[in-house]
Structure to design on (948 residues):
């Protein structure tokens, strides 16, 4: 059925988002007998260490964990207030069933799970195995990510499983794989302060990876130079040595232009290139035409800035490249990353202390979540589902015939398109809120309504779960245990802090219970996530991302272990590519020439302004958690449309006015924020909000041909001043999609 | 280990408000944040500045308090007003050169940063300086600061003719010895003002 059963305001009244402002039991002093549990933040890929304070199986507060060797007690506001998601009034505590016209009613686990299993089999019998799809997430632990991949291939036997890392890390991952042969940040964060020049491309570090700020500032204190590429002057750009306000989608102009100047002036490492790389000559040929003037036209910045960037980066003794979604969320996201990485290998500055490169992973398990086999083309250990050797090995681990493992399925956007086209009829989702997070949100909502059956596993009723026929009450990170792999490639331990409330269950138990109803019960006999990790170790053995030498005990003793860690005595691998040894069979890094090409939708006379989207520091992704926490909503309560005063003047818009931001696909009405810190041809709207406040109403459903990442960072819009809306959605609380 | 002190480096601040959120979490603050994070002028720049109580050697807030409600502990921490004494007159609010004390209407009392006294008095760092992701707020020894910062730490201020020494240090460029705060002439002619340093449109017109 998959339609919202009652009016949205009625659902919001019952399920929120409501705000939690006070810890369980009120603001009472900590007590000696409180239990402190060392674990990690549930939000971004920095995975900061934190101690949660527990009293009577309730999370009541937290303490910094100053010894954890990544964040040293530091936390962003989300980490500080994260515990307010526990004991929350909106928490789902039992399974729900959709009732048309009435909403959702409580059902028993047996009724809910039996219905899920029978609907999966009904749909598959009628339309084929692949007509039932699974969408998962990169905030799941490694254990759960592994389980979801196995569940799809062994229990549901559908090819169509993909995950929301498709919106996050896939461009960076594909570029790294192509150039280096390995998809992981090359260096531990401790290398960043040792670099003499740091290039940060498309990363709003201060808001999206705040803990990394101190690593940048440490380098600056030692006199290192900082170059920032961003259409917006972000808080870290304020103190940069060189800030390049690149036009969204013009990054290749900067990178190729820099390389052009470096070659011209002899600032490349010819020995390193000869010994450790292939393909340089084609790249050199390609960048010949990227003179600073030509490159500047593409980048939309003065040519002097590109020359200056080359002058800082080129001759430096040590250097570090950091990139993130700003260059990755493009229909040429992989090419953007490759062009940036070419600057690293041309300089030969990688695989040494203070020399290297990293992608700033977005989601909590953005790294591990893309290794364990929950991607549409992947088996555990970052193995290729189309490779017969890889299939045989995993079939052996799972104890199934190789031919029973489905082939490559659809990635997230084509998967939703297949739902819209009526080819996929059933869906199970976990850790994914696509009506907020996918581009072209009106299309996504229309697609969901076409499903015959939709089951959502969640801890709150997300905006997407409102469409579900069955909602299964799952677990928060702190209600289960396992491991994640942080931004550096460091595998860390999440400890169980409290039990799920009411009848809510750990996610892995729910999945195993469905699997057992579907048939292969013996393949899902785990007593705990630890059992799953033990199987994951073997499944990853011999692969690029080898966890075989790790145990939960070793991970805890060492405050994390970096993969690859192939043997039980292996110390792990904090820094990749030492000695110029890369991950390809030939041991070399592969230069790939990249030509700039336009974005899928460029501004024109009808829609003359560039819209770029992103995050704010107090919210995380689709906001399912952070829009329920009072302190975080107070900090940034509703999306604003940032625009330059020059643009505002031509539009007749004043600070605080309501504006309609409109693309060919949809619109939002939000207040304008007039700031000089953004390009005058660009507006910015953060994407954490649902419904009529969703920036993704406007974004374009165009994807990178290799990574299939959507183009969140550029589409064409027009902006007009409007009156304050007073419809039913506008009148909701701001965290629910209202506007004030 | 030598004594740890509180340091503010405004140039590092990224405006994330971790300090504001964490301050409220300190056991004795019970959900009320005492630190101020000033957004300087968002339309012009992204610059922000955190402000804790500077814990003056001779706290003027205490001197002007008619009820003698503000006490400094022997270790130099100027405390919030004492509830039984505070009459809510706001003399302290008006007199503090750093704008720190705030009169809380709901409880009819002045509350201010006490450097998380329940934490710092037992060897723990204050909440804000523990969580600050940028290192704009730090609770460290003088040696640690010397080793890790380019600037120097000073705690000497001059407001007009009034000299003030504080327990809290600020990190400034090496040539600075004292922070001099002069009255700003509001009616300065536009020509005398510096060019907009954070206007992206101007950057695109004239590269530096």
């Amino acid at each position: 059925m998959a339609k919202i059963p009652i009016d949205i305001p009625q659902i919001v009244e019952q399920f929120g988002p409501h705000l939690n402002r006070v810890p369980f039991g009120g603001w009472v002093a900590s007590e000696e007998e409180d239990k402190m549990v060392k674990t990690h933040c549930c939000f971004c890929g920095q995975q900061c260490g934190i101690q949660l304070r527990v009293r009577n199986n309730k999370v009541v507060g937290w303490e910094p964990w100053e010894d954890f060797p990544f964040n040293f007690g530091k936390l962003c506001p989300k980490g500080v207030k994260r515990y307010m998601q526990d004991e929350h009034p909106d928490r789902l505590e039992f399974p729900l069933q959709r009732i048309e016209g009435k909403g959702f009613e409580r059902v028993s686990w047996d009724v809910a799970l039996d219905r899920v299993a029978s609907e999966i089999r009904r749909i598959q019998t009628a339309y084929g195995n692949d007509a039932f799809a699974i969408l998962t997430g990169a905030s799941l632990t490694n254990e759960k990510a592994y389980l979801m991949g196995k569940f799809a291939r062994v229990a549901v036997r559908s090819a169509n499983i993909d995950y929301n890392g498709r919106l996050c890390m896939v461009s960076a991952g594909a570029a790294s794989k192509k150039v280096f042969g390995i998809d992981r940040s090359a260096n531990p964060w401790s290398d960043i302060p040792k670099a003499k020049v740091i290039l940060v491309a498309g990363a709003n570090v201060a808001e999206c990876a705040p803990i990394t700020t101190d690593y940048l500032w440490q380098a600056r204190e030692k006199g290192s130079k900082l170059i920032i590429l961003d259409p917006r002057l972000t808080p870290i750009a304020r103190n940069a040595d060189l800030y390049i306000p690149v036009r969204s989608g013009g990054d290749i102009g900067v990178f190729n232009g820099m390389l052009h100047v470096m070659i011209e002036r002899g600032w490349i490492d010819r020995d390193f290139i000869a010994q450790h790389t292939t393909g340089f000559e084609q790249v050199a040929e390609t960048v010949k035409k990227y003179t600073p003037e030509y490159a500047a036209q593409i980048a939309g910045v003065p040519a002097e800035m590109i020359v200056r960037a080359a002058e800082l980066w080129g001759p430096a003794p040590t250097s570090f490249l950091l990139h993130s979604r700003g260059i990755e969320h493009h229909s040429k996201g992989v090419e953007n990353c490759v062009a940036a990485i070419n600057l690293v290998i041309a300089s030969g500055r990688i695989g040494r202390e203070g020399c290297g490169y990293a992608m700033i992973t977005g989601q909590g398990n953005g790294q591990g979540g893309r290794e364990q086999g929950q991607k549409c083309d992947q088996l555990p250990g970052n193995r290729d589902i189309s490779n017969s050797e890889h299939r045989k090995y995993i079939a052996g681990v799972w104890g199934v015939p190789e031919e029973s493992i489905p082939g490559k399925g659809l990635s997230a956007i084509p998967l939703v398109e297949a739902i819209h086209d009526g080819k996929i009829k059933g869906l199970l989702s976990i850790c994914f809120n696509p009506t907020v997070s996918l581009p072209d949100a009106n299309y996504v909502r229309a697609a969901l309504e076409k499903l015959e059956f939709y089951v959502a596993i969640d801890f709150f009723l997300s905006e997407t779960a409102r469409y579900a026929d069955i909602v299964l009450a799952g677990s928060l990170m702190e209600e289960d245990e396992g491991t994640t792999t942080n931004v550096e490639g460091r595998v860390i331990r999440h400890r169980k802090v409290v039990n799920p409330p009411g009848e809510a269950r750990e996610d892995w138990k729910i999945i195993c219970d469905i699997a057992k109803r579907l048939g292969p019960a013996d393949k899902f006999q785990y007593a705990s996530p630890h059992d799953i990790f033990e199987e994951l170790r073997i499944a990853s053995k011999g692969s690029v991302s080898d966890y075989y030498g790790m145990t939960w005990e070793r991970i805890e003793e060492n405050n994390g272990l970096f993969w690859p860690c192939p043997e039980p005595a292996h110390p792990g691998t904090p820094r990749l590519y030492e000695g110029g040894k890369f991950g390809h069979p030939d041991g070399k890094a592969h230069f790939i020439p990249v030509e700039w090409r336009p974005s899928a939708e460029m501004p024109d006379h009808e829609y003359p302004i560039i819209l770029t989207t992103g995050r704010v520091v107090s919210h995380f992704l689709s906001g399912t958690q952070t829009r329920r926490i009072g302190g975080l909503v107070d900090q940034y309560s509703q999306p604003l449309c940032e625009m330059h005063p020059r643009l505002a003047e031509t539009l007749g818009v004043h600070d605080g006015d309501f504006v309609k931001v409109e693309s060919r696909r949809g619109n939002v009405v939000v207040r304008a924020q007039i700031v000089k810190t953004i390009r005058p041809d660009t507006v910015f709207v953060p994407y954490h909000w649902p419904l009529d406040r969703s920036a993704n109403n406007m974004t374009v459903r165009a994807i990178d041909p290799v990574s299939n990442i959507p183009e969140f960072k550029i589409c064409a819009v027009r902006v007009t001043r409007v009156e304050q809306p007073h419809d039913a959605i506008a009148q909701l609380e701001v965290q629910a999609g209202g506007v004030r | 280990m030598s004594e740890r002190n509180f340091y503010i480096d405004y140039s590092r601040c990224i405006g994330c408000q971790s300090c504001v959120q964490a301050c409220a979490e300190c056991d004795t603050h019970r959900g009320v944040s005492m630190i101020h994070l000033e957004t300087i002028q968002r339309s012009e720049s992204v610059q922000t500045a955190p402000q804790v109580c500077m814990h003056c050697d001779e706290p003027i807030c205490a001197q002007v308090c008619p009820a003698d409600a503000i006490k400094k502990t022997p270790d130099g921490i100027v405390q919030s007003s004492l509830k039984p004494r505070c009459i809510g007159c706001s003399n302290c609010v008006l007199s503090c050169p750093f704008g720190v004390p705030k009169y809380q209407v709901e409880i009819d009392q002045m509350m201010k940063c006490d450097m998380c006294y329940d934490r710092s008095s037992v060897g723990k760092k204050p909440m804000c300086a523990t969580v600050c992701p940028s290192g704009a707020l730090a609770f460290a020894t003088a040696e640690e600061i010397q080793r890790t910062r380019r600037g120097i730490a000073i705690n000497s201020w001059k407001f007009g003719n009034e000299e003030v020494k504080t327990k809290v240090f600020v990190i400034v460029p090496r040539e600075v010895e004292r922070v001099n705060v002069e009255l700003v002439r509001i009616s300065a002619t536009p020509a005398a003002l510096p060019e907009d340093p954070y206007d992206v449109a101007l950057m695109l017109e004239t590269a530096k």
